[in-house]
Amino acid sequence: MTNTFVYHFVRLITPLFLLFLVSICVCDTHARVVVEEKVKQPARVKKVDAAALSAAFFTRKKMDLIKELDEVMREMIWLIRSQRPSANKTLFGKVYRAFQQAKGGKLTEKNKHSCDQYSVEKISEYQYRVYEHCQKHRSPDLLAKLDWSQRQVDFQFQGQNYADVLGLAASLVAPTIDCKVTIEDEAKLVAFQCAGFRITRLDHVIRFESLVYKKGKEPLMWLKGEVLKNLLPYSDYTIRVPLVGKVQIVEKKKVPDADETTPEQNAREKAKVQPAPQAMSPSARPIEQPMPPAPVDPRELPPMSPLPTQPQPFRPMPTPLPLGPSVPLVPEEGNQSPSSSPVPADTTPPAEMMQNAPPEMIEIK
Q: Is residue 12 a contact partner of residue 19, using CB atoms and an 8 Å limit?
């Protein structure tokens, strides 16, 4: 009896157990297939239908306004970098391409833009957000927030997502850039100004306090900021664009370079190298040599006197006195002076004088 019960129990339980195992295997295989399909499926760009957004927002006038803002910022970047960027390669240009794509338009020059896949999110009737999709398995990057009122449009750009426009170094130090656009007659540009704008120029980053544009007013553009070298203030930088005349670009250094010296430093270094002048003794002073006479032109000499033609009478030369002891002279009669005393007759000259005396005494009259 017991064997019969066990036989029927096993006969009933075994098919159920096998069916349970088969169902588990089928469910596991189906789950794996679903997971693999989700992983392989690329992230799709969330496109918002233009009809779902406000129809008035996509008017031609408003699109032209954003395009004009893009052109003005292109001119500013051209003045800063001395190189004009390509079309729509500005903060406003990416927003323009996003709205153009949301309307179903075809984007041109895609090879000059990175990613270039956008989506627009409507927050309220006048507030929108613009995203850019660069990687498949990552959430989209927020480009800008728009608040479109009747007289003013506020743009808040996320600078870290504009590396292809501002440069990598500038995008790292530009968290947000706020621009306020003044309009009239629905979408006619009057002026705009931006704060927190930063851009890379060569190896430096330029941090602007303000970018101002006034349509038809003086000055037309005014950009004021400072150049950062190693993220430290290096020089003041201003650009002024008048309505008529030349553009003024002024850059004034705040701190000189390591290999650069100022005139004051040059004077101090020169004073250290050169010793102070000392007073010279009279004996050490150089003797002033007389200047040689100037050369005389023979043609300027006066004419010489002519030689005498008549022979001159012969005049004998006087006999020189001997080089011996002085011999007293005998004065002439009548010309004796009171102070002169006659030589005594009995005075006999010494023997040495007698030896050197001439044989005869000469009396000079």
A: no
Nearest to 122 by CA among 50, 201, 188: 50
The span from the first CA to the last CA of the chain, in angstroms, equals 208
How many Å apart are CA 315 and CA 45, to the nearest integer? 142
pLDDT digits (tens, 9 = 90+) for 307-363: 666 666 666 666 665 555 555 554 555 444 444 445 454 555 555 555 555 555 555
> Can you tell me the distance from the alpha carbon of 54 to that of 124, in angstroms, rounded to the nearest whole number?
9
Q: Would the pLDDT of 29 be above 80?
A: no
How far apart are the C-alpha atoms of 131 and 95, rounded to whole Å? Answer: 9
**What are the residue boundaries of the structural domains of the chain, listed by start?**
55-257
| pLDDT at site 33 | 43
Determine the average pLDDT of the residues in 114-135: 89
Query: What does the H/E/C string look like for 349-360?
Result: CCHHHHHHCCCC
What is the Cα–Cα distance from 140 to 143, expressed in whole angstroms?
Answer: 9
**DSSP string spanning 242-304?**
-SSS--EEEEEESS--TT---HHHHHHHHHHHSPPP-PPPTTTSPPPPPPPPPP--GGGSPPP
CA 110 from chain center: how many Å? Answer: 34
* pTM of the full structure: 0.59
Report which of 105, 145, 125 is spatially closest to residue 55, judged by C-alpha positions.
125
Torsion of CA 294, 297, 300, 305, to 10 degrees: 100
How far is it, in rounded angstroms, from Cα 167 to Cα 6? 81
Span of 60-64, 163-167, 312-316 with lowest mean pLDDT: 312-316
Q: Find where tokens 């008017």 sit.
A: 59
Q: Please tell me the distance from the alpha carbon of residue 321 to that of residue 362, in angstroms, as a whole number.
A: 10
Cis peptide before 42 (omega within 30 of 0): no
Per residue in 169-208, pLDDT tens?
999 888 899 999 999 987 899 999 999 999 999 889 999 9
Instruction: Give the C-alpha separation, 213 to 73, whole Å.
Output: 9
Residues 6+ apart with CB under 8 A from 329: 364
- Specify the length of the chain in residues: 365
